[in-house]
Amino acid sequence: MRQETPTALRQRRFPEFYRVHHQPVFRALTATIGDRELAQEATDEAMTRAYQRWSAVSGYDNAPGWVYRVGLNWARSRLRKQSREFLLDAPPDAPVDQPLPDPDVERALRELPLEARTLVVLRHLMDWSYEDIAETLEIPVGTAKSRLHRVMADLRQKLEERA
Q1: What is the pLDDT of residues 87-122, one digit of tens each?
Q2: Cα 3 from chain centroid?
């Protein structure tokens, strides 16, 4: 019986990775970007790149974080290109198709800058650790904690002002 190579074994594991992580990454990108269609394209692009580099990506401690980061960077690039081409009349701040339970929270989240929204989504919607967030965003853990603390304080203040 011929033994599988490590590369062939890892390639067989990609479908399981895709099945488990596609939807959570898609939901996180949708909440971060605020545009369901762009988030779907970004998720698909990131998963394709993960498959192409699966021999390396499969060894990462936080492979879903890598996929999220690739998708977010791809979406940012697409948004920059669209704004340069004047294809967008306004930023993609349309509500997400799967709204948060509280419309005030959703509205306040959408008002945050993309980087701040990313922190909140990864920590509170994806339930990621500070370490996973820091690794994904390529920042120190302490920076992730302090930025998220500031963002959450801002969110609380906005919500209190609306109450």
Answers
A1: 444 455 444 455 555 777 778 888 888 889 999 989
A2: 37
Both structure tokens of 120: 């909140």
- Both tokens of 29, joined, read 């990108």
- Which residues, 6 or more positions from 53, have their beta carbon under 8 angstroms from its beta carbon? none
Is 69 in contact with 163 (CB distance < 8 Å)?
A: no
- Reported as half-sphere exposure (CB side, CA atoms, 13 A), residue 61 has a value of 8
Mean pLDDT by groups of 10 residues along the chain of 163 residues: 54 88 95 93 97 93 94 91 56 49 77 89 89 92 94 88 77
Q: Give the Cα separation of 112 and 38 in Å (integer).
A: 18
Note the pTM of the prediction, 2 decimals: 0.70
- Cβ neighbours of 87 (radius 10 Å): 9
Cα separation, 121 vs 29, whole angstroms? 9
Q: Which two tokens stand for residue 71?
A: 């998708």
Question: What's the CA gap between 99 and 34, in Å, rounded?
Answer: 10
